[in-house]
Amino acid sequence: MKKPILILLILVSGICLKAQTNLDSLWTLWNDTTADSEDRLTSINKLIFQRYLFNDPDSAHILSVSMLELATATNSKVHIANGLGRIAASFYFKTEYDSALYYYEKAIPIYDELGEHQSVASIYGNMGNMYADQGNYPKAIDYYMGGLKANEKSGNQSGIASKMNNIGLLHRDLDDTEEAMKFFNESLAIFEELDNKTGQSDCLLNMAQTLIDKGDYEAALPYLDRCAEIHKTFENKDGKAVLLCLYGLYYFQLEQYEQALTNYNQGLDLLLEMGNDQNSARALVQIGRAYMALGQPELAIAQFEKAKKLGKDSGAISPYLNAANYLSKAYRERGDFAKSVDNYALFVELSDSTRNVENKMTLIRQQYAYSYEKQLFQDSIAKAKEALIVELAYQKELRKKDTMRNVALGSGLILFILAGGLYSRNRYIKKSRDIISRERDRSEGLLLNILPAEIAEELKEKGKADARDFDLVSILFTDFIGFTEISSKMNAQELVSEINSCFESFDGIMIKYGIEKIKTIGDAYMAAGGLPAPSDKAVANTVRAALEMQAFISRRKKKLDEKNLPAFQMRVGIHTGPVVAGIVGVKKFQYDLWGDTVNTASRMESNGELGKVNISHVTYEMIEDNPEFKFESRGKIFVKGKGDMEMWFVTSK
């Protein structure tokens, strides 16, 4: 039960979300293109928050892009800010923090201009949470303090108390118990003044857990008891379940295991009743630990197995991992070495997988943890020796008490166990090597999905990749037209599936022509020809790829039209020139491009036409003699921020 009780601050919008609204009516209103745009935007804002944001962030992202598009077209500032906030929150719940921070930063000045201080406070709270998750506590505290100031401007005392509670959690993680308790107490005082029972409960539980973690169990008890008194006055199953499990942890630390079991089981009953599978799995792990401490490994194994299954089924890695670890120990204690080794191998695999997700850069710099393989080999030998020593001691006692016949039998058993131990050790070593090999291959594949191969190699060799200047790169942008109108004819799952089908095909075309996919931005797709390795064929290949992409969209539209299904149409624009390329981000890094060439390519797309490939005059001059293309001059077209620019449509002969 080490997980912090974090008061999560979600950006709900400048408009207060009232009671639960009928979700179907919200969807109907959003799809009604004849309805007032403000009403449609309000409905989609509520729909994203109530149905998709927490459970399906991918769909929330797609709908948020549609929302932002309509808000921008109607110049609705509050909904532009809300759309940016929803996009940021969708990235937040996918733990894509760099993107979330980018969109939150874009929303803040708009909310400031509108005087929406509470929304600014919520954004700062979420940004603080993200930095806290990454272990950047100084920056997290800065954003929480910024949120406090915004809450003070709006007069939101509950928001002030929540941020103080979160700052207390950061100090606790920094082992500064005194400062943590100070902020918890300040937060508690405000919640008491507001008569906010839930807030009071959260603060008291955080204070109790802080003292338990420190080992000051007696000092923790009054806070648990105060929290228990509060829960007599209102119904909050979540808080009560946490309270009971913390009581269980308190008694477990005092080695009062029977009392710990009573509280853990009561907490588990509430969690199961609420359908909270992840925390139920955590509670089952703690119950198993109590049975282990009572010398009842069979009962412990039963609880750990339940926790393992529940953790796996619910996607809760932490209890799944812990259950496998404790099962390894419990089976070893019972003498079932095969199951012990299997569970330990699973524990190693899950641990490595978790580290891969959280520490990609570290894994790369450590050369995919080759040194860890050696350590696993040494650990496996130590485990086998430890098990053998236990068995030899047991057999020694048998020899003292039994006859020579039993001694001989015991000696035979030792040889059998030794053989089994060596076999298990060899199986374990092989399995560990296989695990590391799979993780190494998985990391390699993941890296190549994120970065160009040459950049990935440089990153592995040097631990970093330098930014580079490229003199001649062809930038390609695509954009689906009428995205909002078409998306209104699909549900979220259909919309995501259709976009994914198109982008998967585009990815295949990029591979075919040696073009580097850079990123997708909502329903837009960006790629570049001529990097990281410059090529004389790059400009022509980029145009070929663009023509093939338009051909694919045309074929798909015809196919879907025959089935009376909505389909996308697309603009494509290309410009060629110098760019700067490099890696941005640390935790979730991304290969990206900068420079006027990128901006101009985007203008080529936005000034294009449906089904056409629009290219700049610079690109035209580089391929005008290519016999496989034909060109249609569009003359000079005014481009915002650029003035008049000559453009050409290009097609295949």
Blueprint (SSEs and pairs):
Blueprint: H1 23-31, H2 37-52, H3 57-73, H4 77-93, H5 97-114, H6 117-133, H7 137-154, H8 157-173, H9 177-193, H10 197-214, H11 217-231, H12 237-253, H13 257-274, H14 277-293, H15 297-314, H16 317-334, H17 337-358, H18 360-365, H19 370-401, H20 404-450, H21 453-462, E1 468-481, H22 483-487, H23 492-513, E2 516-521, E3 524-529, H24 538-562, E4 569-584, E5 590-594, H25 596-606, E6 613-616, H26 617-623, E7 629-639, E8 643-652
Parallel strand pairs: 4-6
Antiparallel strand pairs: 1-3, 1-4, 2-3, 4-5, 6-8, 7-8
Q: What are the low-pLDDT stretches, counting only 5+ consecutive residues below 50?
A: 1-21, 355-392, 394-425
Largest sheet, in brief, is: 8 strands, mixed
Shape: elongated
Number of helices: 26
What does it look like?
The model is unreliable at 1-21, 355-392 and 394-425 (pLDDT under 50). This protein has a domain at 466-652: Nucleotide cyclase, GGDEF domain (Alpha-Beta Plaits). 70% of the residues lie in helices and 11% in strands. The chain has 653 residues and is of the alpha+beta class. It has helices at residues 23-31, 37-52, 57-73, 77-93, 97-114, 117-133, 137-154, 157-173, 177-193, 197-214, 217-231, 237-253, 257-274, 277-293, 297-314, 317-334, 337-358, 360-365, 370-401, 404-450, 453-462, 483-487, 492-513, 538-562, 596-606, 617-623; strands spanning 468-481, 516-521, 524-529, 569-584, 590-594, 613-616, 629-639, 643-652.
